[in-house]
Amino acid sequence: MTAYQNFWDAEIETLLQQLDAPQSLEENIVDTLNNSRRTGIFPNQIINALRIGLSLKEGNQNMAFVASMQSGKSGTVYFLCNYVLPAIGLIKEYESILFVTSMRDTDLYNQNCRVLQREYYDCVTGDMKPSVLKVMKMSNFFNHPNPHKVVNEFDVQLIVRDEDQYGSGVESSFELAFFAELRYRMPDIKLLAVSATPYDILDAQFTGATDVDVIVGVRPPEYYGISEMLADGVIEDIPEGFRPLQVQEVEGESVYTIHPKTEEYVNHLNTFENGLGIIRESNTTRAIELRRLLKDQYKKQCTTIVIGSDVACDFSINEGIKEISDLILKRGQRVVLIIVQALTAGKDLGIIKEKVRFGIEPRDRQLANGAQGITGRFCGYHNNRDFKLMASRSLLEHYAQFEQDWEIFADENWRNDLYNSNVRGLSTHTKFVKTQSEGAFTPIEHIETLTYEQLLTEEGRESLSFIDNDAYHRLLDYFDSNFYNVSTKGTRFKQMGVTVRIASGYNQASNRVYRNWNCNLNDDFGNIFFKKLPYNYGILISNYPIDDARNTLGFTGIKILKSGKQEWRNQETNVQNNSMYGNNDAA
């Protein structure tokens, strides 16, 4: 078995024990994984679902599930709701879970209905059972006739909010429907935000506006995402001032030409027997003109199609994706797809990803849509590495850093770099500004450093007297190769009043254990551990052996930090978060 297989076997077993789950759940997990090709559920989704289930069982009210684009978030939610929560007694017969699609997108809504509301198989009873999930558009949730009646009608126990960066501000329907109406009447209703870029809820967690439990999705080795694309060199930086269609004024008339880079990418497509190239244009007029020129120049080599919401387009978004699927997979054609403000978060190209030859994504002003657009649609589980992508490398490099370490979005240098690259926001409602605001500051009262060898002594155990024996032995297990040689991101220490950072949970380039190792009594405990909520102790854990190349510190052991009383200080920041989770002040 591979190290990753050993990891997910051990992780699933540990999570089942922590959940005190019945044998029936374990049997359904085994059956689901043995039939993954049929069920569409894989080990990373099982682990994610169990981690979220544990968070719910622990009583958390606001949760954020952060996972890479096209990595299987819908499958995670499906398994969580239909298998995990009923098994551990958090969903009973005739109770349901509401899945709210934040974008008013009919195609995405229908896709979610197909995936999440389908029946599921219970191998223990041998029965097909109805899904406990109810999918609803945001607008319907707000007007049905009010959210309180929706929850009562379907006996909703949990609301799952998809693509959390949309509709977040005070003027949004979800703000009014959920916080001003539903949670006011039903304060115990729980919320799970699911997204690759839920920046507003993460910012609310960082500033302390709302208590949020963040669950990090497992990233399997076969997943191919933006980090891997950058490493493989398939992403070319978009030239300054680039637009796929060029225009010049000649004797008072607009003369359009295809940008040479656009021609280069279309020519790349035409070297293949079949395949797909995708270009984003800013409006329908430009898209139609680009289609005309491409048809004139390449009419014998490829087919050009425009999709969007305007009647002048060849197809709607959903119909267009079906059409190109037929042209490429059934008729072996080469297709250039021009999209007009379409093909964003949630759209899945499916097996067409194997046939993608190029993408041109000009959007570079907002991190979420710049990453989740064409680039994000190329992410997932496929073997295609022979494609070209033109996009903002700076934006995608910053997203890749977030993808590897989600806490970095609160790093001042990271945000300043984005701002200086003319990226004006993290998401629709989390924007950059230059301002001064108050922030929580937690002083450090005491720091103690212990080598691994000292941890094994009575004196070392005495230094850790604030944790129980189970936590002490868990801590020692972190130094075992079976632990640090697999993906340990998202591991929970599960000791009241104690938060930890583990070196093996971070990538080598931005390892937050090593970056924060030289902290001192003048530093902010909350910034070191990304926790504005009260913790008595924090532990930095360098669990790699000294001679391991990943151990850039040259030290194996821990650093214990004891926190003081939280206070408020003026601090400079550059994020304006019109989030539903807090207030509208700069954060």
Give the secondary structure arrangement, pairings included.
Elements lengths: L2 H17 L3 H12 L1 H4 L3 H15 L4 E5 L6 H15 L8 E6 L4 H11 L3 E3 L4 E3 L3 E5 H5 L4 H8 L1 E7 L10 H13 L4 E6 L3 H9 L4 E5 L9 H7 L2 E3 L7 E6 L2 E6 L1 H10 L5 E7 L2 H15 L4 E5 L9 H14 L3 E7 L15 E5 L6 H6 L1 H4 L10 E4 L1 H12 L7 H9 L9 E12 L2 E8 H4 L2 H6 L5 H9 L3 H4 L13 E5 L9 H4 L9 H5 L7 E6 L14 E7 L3 E11 L10
Parallel strand pairs: 1-7, 1-8, 2-5, 2-6, 6-7, 9-16, 12-14, 12-15, 13-14, 15-16, 19-20
Antiparallel strand pairs: 3-4, 10-11, 17-22, 18-21, 20-21
Helix pairs in contact: 1-4, 4-5
Question: Which key terms come to mind for this protein?
Answer:
587 residues; alpha/beta; Rossmann fold; six-stranded parallel beta sheet; 24 helices; globular
